[in-house]
Design brief:
Pfam families: HTH_25, RodZ_C. It is a single chain. The chain is α+β, with helices and mostly antiparallel strands. The chain folds into three domains: about 5-75, Orthogonal Bundle (434 Repressor (Amino-terminal Domain)), CATH 1.10.260.40; about 85-115; about 185-285, no CATH class. About 50% of the residues lie in helices and about 20% in strands. The chain contains seven helices and ten strands. A six-stranded mixed β-sheet has the order 1-2-10-7-4-5, covered by helices on one side. A four-stranded antiparallel β-sheet has the order 6-3-8-9, with no helix packed on it. A hairpin with a 2-residue loop joins β1 (about 185-195) and β2. The longest helix has about 50 residues, at about 85-135. It is flat. The chain starts with a helix and ends with a strand.
């Protein structure tokens, strides 16, 4: 085992994570994670993937990947960048130059054609406007009278509609107030604490929207059978959201409760144990369906 692998394994165990949970958080196969801890990179698809996997592993367990790369550079394989042949680059440049010359030689002709077409179009528009003005002069008085009649009719209709609107607005306001009074807010009740796990009962909620913010933590959500529903690190400026409406039981594992706020439908959920006493806590939610 390399010093780098030993450091990553210690950080994982401090967070209480198994290799399966790190696999769920990073989407990296367990055998690659185990190879990183043991310093066995022969199974990896390439040196680039080794560095990428180490970076994801470090972030999942709360370590700075840049500091790891600098401190354990001897334990990490180097990348080898491919060089592009010089003669190929020159050939492509020459070909591009020829294409540009052909395009610029065609530009003057195209500009002249567009200019002539534009002049013809402007002349045609002016001619059509002159014909239209000559045809419209005899009917000018009739159109003015018809326009005045239409405006007067519109004003009368608008006045009638304005008089009816206050009554409709009052009825709609009363209906909205009645609906607001009948709605019940979500209820989240702490029903027991056992070790680092707190159990809550949720009622009066058809939809469940989970929102989590934190300066630095790790979030994992599982169902009653232990299957992973979501998992990722959350840092400063990040907002983690998850729709749990279809579940009647789910568990949220908070890697670091310091500064971490969990909300359900906009209502903050208090930890069963103070955050300064237990860093990593589990929150089980049982949904009561009506």
């Amino acid at each position: 085992m390399t010093e780098l692998g030993k450091r990553l394994r210690e950080a994982r165990e401090e967070k209480g994570y198994s290799l399966e949970e790190v696999q769920s958080l990073t989407k990296i196969q367990k055998r690659y994670l185990q190879g990183i801890e043991e310093g066995n990179y022969s199974m990896m698809p390439g040196s680039f993937y080794v560095r990428a996997f180490i970076k994801q592993y470090a972030e999942a367990v709360g370590l700075d990947p840049n500091e790891l790369f600098e401190a354990y550079s001897n334990d990490i394989p180097l990348n080898h960048e491919e060089q592009i042949p010089v003669h190929l680059t020159r050939a492509q440049t020459k070909k591009t130059g020829n294409s540009s010359s052909t395009m610029f030689s065609f530009l003057p002709t195209a500009i002249v054609v567009v200019f002539i077409v534009g002049i013809l179009f402007v002349a045609w528009v002016l001619f059509q406007n002159i014909l239209s003005e000559n045809n419209d002069v005899p009917n000018g008085t009739d159109e003015t009278e018809e326009s005045v009649d239409i405006d007067q009719q519109n004003e009368a209709v608008n006045g009638e509609e304005s008089a009816e609107e206050p009554a409709q607005s009052d009825e709609e306001q009363n209906e909205e107030n009645t609906e607001a009074e009948t709605e019940e807010s979500i209820s989240i009740e702490n029903i027991g604490v056992e070790g680092p796990t707190t159990t809550y009962q949720i009622s009066n909620a058809d939809e469940l929207e989970i929102t989590i913010t934190s300066p630095d933590t790790w979030i994992g959500i599982t169902d009653e059978a232990g299957g992973s529903l979501a998992g990722q690190p959350v840092g400063e400026g990040d907002t983690f959201t998850f729709d749990a409406s279809e579940y009647d039981w789910f568990r949220i594992r908070v890697g670091s409760t310091a500064g971490t706020e969990v909300q359900i439908n906009g209502e903050a959920v208090e930890y069963g144990i103070p955050a300064n006493e237990v860093t990593t806590q589990n929150m089980i939610f049982e949904v009561e369906n009506e």
